Design the sequence.
């Protein structure tokens, strides 16, 4: 049989066939509801995520959006996870959302990272929502990913 998913590891292709594609559309951070299972993590500016309790409150970054994206993707590359940008959507002149598909190093478990960047007077506001595509728990992987990204952005 011919391999139908070019660019994907065989494990990633099997996960895709069994569990379906990841949620790649935009999410509304103001109405986002956290999962009942312990396999997601959320970081938001104060007041943005009204229906969900964030794990981390983010502060504005005094960087232009393009530089913040570059640093975020550098942090993702340093994490050991493989990643690709799935979608980028401009919601308004000030707000952009990006969706990344990530895969863990060993078992290639698929995760999705939603990133919202908003140009504000003091720089760029950042919201992150990282969630596993499969499984009940993630062993803290999504929270650790967000912590690592935020730590890299603060340097």
Sequence:
């Amino acid at each position: 049989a011919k391999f139908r998913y070019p660019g994907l590891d065989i494990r990633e292709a099997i996960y895709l066939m069994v569990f379906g594609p990841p949620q790649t559309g935009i999410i509304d951070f103001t109405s986002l509801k956290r999962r009942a299972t312990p396999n997601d993590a959320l970081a938001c500016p104060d007041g943005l995520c009204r229906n969900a309790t964030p794990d981390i409150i983010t502060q504005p970054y005094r960087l232009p959006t393009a530089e913040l994206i570059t640093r975020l993707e550098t942090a993702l590359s340093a994490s050991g996870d493989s990643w690709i940008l799935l979608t980028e959507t401009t919601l308004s002149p000030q707000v952009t959302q990006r969706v990344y598909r990530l895969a863990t190093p060993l078992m290639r478990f698929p995760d999705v990272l939603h990133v919202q960047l908003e140009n504000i007077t003091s720089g760029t506001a950042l919201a992150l929502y990282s969630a596993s595509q499969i499984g009940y728990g993630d062993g803290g992987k999504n929270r650790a990913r967000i912590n690592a990204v935020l730590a890299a952005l603060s340097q």
About this structure: The helical segments are 10-19, 65-78, 141-153.
